[in-house]
Amino acid sequence: MACGGYIPSGDVYEAGFRQAFCRYINKNLTGDPDCRAYMPLDPYSDKLYDAVKDGVVLCKIVNKLFPDAIDERAVNKSTNIFYASHRVENIQLALTAARCNGCAVRSIAVDDLMGSRTHFKLASLEFFKQVILKGYFRKINIHEHPEMFTLKLAHEDLHDIRCLSPQDILTRYVNFHLKSAGVTKTLTSFDYDLSDCVVYAYLLYKIAPVTVRPRLLPPDQVLLDNQLLNRAKAVLQNLRELGAEMFLCEDDFINSFTNRETRGVLHLITVAFLFNRFAGEMKTYGAGDRPASKESINELSSRNFVNSVDVRPFSTHVISNLRDGHIARQMFEILRPGFTTGVKFTYEFDLVRREAQFLQNNTCIVRLVQGYPFKLPSLDAERLTRSDLAICEALLLEMLRSFLTRDAYDEYELLRWTNEQLSRAGIPIELRSFSDRAIADENLFAAVLNNLTNGMASKDFLRGKRLDNARYYISVAHKAGYRVYTRPEHFETCSPRWVAIAFAALRWDKN
């Protein structure tokens, strides 16, 4: 289980977050039979926190924002929760699955969500905030939204768009539609620029589908009244027509001068929701210009790993994001704090000299790699700078191995240990490598997991296809607290490097 505990930073707008997340959960889980015992949640009471303690709602929300992150068969449902250990397992499952799908909830421990700690309420809100925000952020990429290419500036290319943070993309998205509407006002801050309702008045009308637009109040009508309360009511009415009313209330407009930063998060979540649902004229101008390749499973797993440790900015295209050296630098600091001290990196880039500055930063990364126990003989700064797929994936994989094993990764030792565990489990199979198809065919990962957890994975759920079985036993590993970043597809195709990483999590890691 995770150690430590959640400590809130700064002033948290508890009532606003609680009401927003209750509305979101009610909208998305009311029809779920497994959540009947908790629904509906009263936004003005503490019922949300009572629902958190069983862990079922946590698991459901993770699955809503990160589809298939949790196999439902691994969840202890409300009708089957008889012991405190069942609640602990559910909360651990939600936390570990969120982490392994790219959500940085590192500071939150299981005990923080059990109701026994001082900051239980704020830890619960922090969990929902991170899962919902990062769940929307993860979709802000060129693979799911090829129309994003419309947002590039004159001097930029596709790589530049991929390297923008989600906040920058959302800012450009809003300003693109404001400009298209002939509005001179621009968005520069989610904390300050949305509370007067002007941006929402034009944005919502501009991005609304033609079938919905007649039901919206036009911008002139929204802004006709100088009373901010009436403007806010009009904006919320338009948000309701677009299905985006969950996160904001009138108070977020009329009292925006208090708890400004946390109210800004609610505005950010709202705009992220709108971006993922309504491209508006971006689709008209840019959707077909650039075919978007599908993100590979390896890239997705690497991106989840990088985001789970809270690098800045949030990575949406992990291979492209390595080109300036800053994510790699942050990763080295996480692997070994202080390791980059004294290494001279460039943090602000000149438009003319930036390629040379990227190369200089990656030269520093190569030097750091040489001083670390990585096996990357073909690594060079130039290949990192041009986002070479093979070398970037290799670097990220080495970092993941180091992260999970605390620099102890040894594949020969891992194979020996795995065979020893199989022997103890009474399975007469000896693996010669992690590409052995018996691993998936015979559910050997589940066998080793059961050997370590006194049989947490039920054999009744291991009689399906490879992919379904893998989904289940990965979730059981998460339930036990093992950070398995390997995807079910890796087991289905017997990808040796990623299958080995999964066993390494069992051998060396339990968070």
TrEMBL record:
Keywords: Actin-binding, Repeat. One of its GO terms (cellular component) is actin filament bundle. PROSITE patterns: CH. The keyword Ribosomal protein does not apply. One of its GO terms (biological process) is actin filament network formation. Residues 15-133, 164-279, 408-511 form the Calponin-homology (CH) domain. GO terms for molecular function: actin filament binding. Pfam families: CH. This is Plastin-3.
